[in-house]
Design a protein that fits this description.
globular; alpha/beta; 185 residues; seven-stranded mixed sheet; single chain; 6 helices; Rossmann fold; Peptidyl-tRNA hydrolase
């Protein structure tokens, strides 16, 4: 069994923000989400592999409160969890798969690592670019994409949804080889 977790903030005011690209990907992968505890959950099956799609109903920085109880209940080890999230250190149009490691300042990823007791889960990082200055980070992630960038990000999200399915069926190595050098124009 696998878990694919999309990070984002609940509420319409956040729906089209950069911080919610993880939710956008999960919305392409599933449509029958039901509230279970602190998360919206949908069943998923890709190429014979079964799992769950999870959109935390908590705010982004508390995502671990939603993910860890489901991982424990279904006995899913960290290496069978993919967290899809926005990434300031990648430009828009880039995707990157990663296994474990530091949260690199991403409080949602840090929350999941803390609540799971391990940073060993996999990540699909979606580039959103850097803010004009470090002090503008919170405002940057909580703002939308420019009208010029919106079509590219819609293409990136479609590619990320495809990549998440490949991860569930073929694994992390196949995804790193196929997507880590990809540029979505």
């Amino acid at each position: 069994m696998f878990l694919i977790v999309g990070l984002g903030n609940p509420g319409l005011q956040y729906a089209r923000t950069k911080h919610n690209v993880g939710f956008w990907v999960l919305d392409l992968l599933g449509s029958r989400f039901r509230l279970r505890g602190k998360a919206w959950v949908a069943e998923a099956g890709f190429g014979g592999s079964a799992g769950l799609l999870i959109k935390p109903a908590t705010f982004y920085n508390a995502s671990g409160e939603a993910v860890a109880p489901l991982a424990r209940f279904y006995r899913v080890p960290p290496e069978h969890i993919l967290v899809v999230h926005d990434e300031l250190d990648l430009p828009p149009g880039r995707l990157r798969f990663k296994a474990g490691g530091s949260a690199a300042g991403n409080y949602g990823v840090a929350s999941i690592a803390q609540h799971l007791g391990s940073p060993g889960f996999h990540r699909l990082r979606i580039g959103i670019g850097k803010p004009p200055s470090p002090e503008e980070g919170a405002g940057w992630v909580l703002s939308g994409f420019s009208p010029e960038l919106q079509p590219r990000m819609e293409r990136v999200v479609r590619v990320a949804a495809e990549a998440a399915q490949i991860w569930a069926t073929e694994g992390l190595d196949a995804c790193q080889k196929r997507y880590n050098g990809l540029w979505v124009a």
